[in-house]
Specification:
This protein is of the alpha+beta class. The chain has 2 domains: 2-120, Translation, Eukaryotic Peptide Chain Release Factor Subunit 1, Chain A (2-Layer Sandwich); 123-240, eRF1 domain 2 (Nucleotidyltransferase, domain 5), CATH 3.30.420.60. Helices cover 37% and strands 23% of the residues. It has 6 helices and 10 strands. The protein has helices at residues 2-11, 34-52, 55-70, 112-120, 174-202, 219-228; strands at residues 17-23, 80-86, 89-95, 102-106, 123-129, 133-140, 143-146, 154-155, 213-217, 235-240.
């Protein structure tokens, strides 16, 4: 969406372009002054615009500015806001990153912050990995949607059954019991690796070569997955811990 806005902003070169960028606050206790600050900044922009153009052009541009200010949701501010107005454009953009206050009036828009935001909106994937369940999510910025198909989410089914020898059995002395448990642990690790290898194959049809992948997993399971995965080059980052049941995952 921001990419399309950026294209229109670039196409507006030669018009009278007003760019107002200023920081806002995403914490409720700090938002109380945002409304006042934005209105004061817009007022200064209007004063500059009045010196820059005549009344016939000034009035419709000011009307666009007022309309956009009226659309700001001050209860859900992010870290910055951009107001962009020209004869052909009226755009209100929220920035999830810190910005500095700017008022720019000229024959083109101030696009640096919008261009940076466009780069942040690249799609990525998140693999939530544990020995019992795997979830795959795809997202842009802080918006994630879980993939639901024949392969995801995936649940590990352990069909290996064994009877733990009794301690009093003459056929299972203590050292044999420890050896049996050790062998059982090795077999279990092999089964989990086979499970992760199968999960990795399921990713083939869902991950493009340029799609960054973030893997969220406990340390041991992550190491097992890395041993068998064919997608290690796509891994842009890892988060340690078991988050397969959580609805919100912090990336970045």
């Amino acid at each position: 969406m921001t990419k399309d806005i950026l294209k229109r902003m670039l196409a507006a070169k030669g018009e009278i372009c007003i760019s107002i960028i200023m920081p806002t606050h995403d914490m409720s206790r700090e938002r109380r002054n945002d409304k006042i600050e934005i209105k004061n900044t817009v007022k200064r922009a209007k004063e500059k615009l009045e010196l820059y153009t005549d009344g016939e052009i000034y009035k419709p541009l000011v009307a666009k500015l007022d309309t956009l200010v009226g659309q700001i949701d001050f209860l859900h501010n992010k870290k910055g806001i951009g107001i962009f107005v020209s004869p052909s454009i009226a755009e209100l953009i929220s920035f999830p990153v810190n910005v500095e206050e700017k008022i720019v009036i000229g024959d083109s828009f101030e696009i640096n912050e919008v261009a940076y935001l466009t780069s942040l909106e690249a799609e990525y994937a998140v693999l939530l990995l544990s020995e019992k369940k795997v979830r795959l999510l795809k997202g842009k910025m802080d918006q994630l949607v879980e993939v639901h198909n024949n392969d995801f989410p995936d649940h590990y089914e352990d069909t290996h059954e064994y009877s733990k020898p009794g301690r009093g059995s003459s056929f299972s002395p203590q050292n044999n019991l420890k050896g049996f448990e050790k062998d059982k642990s090795i077999i279990e690790d092999i089964r989990i690796q086979d499970y992760f290898r199968s999960v990795d194959k399921h990713l083939n049809g869902l991950l493009t070569a340029d799609l960054p992948l973030f893997v969220v997993a406990p340390v041991e399971e992550l190491a097992m997955f890395e041993e068998v995965s064919q997608h290690n080059k796509q891994v842009a980052g890892v988060i340690h811990g078991n988050h397969t049941k959580k609805k919100r995952i912090g990336i970045g």
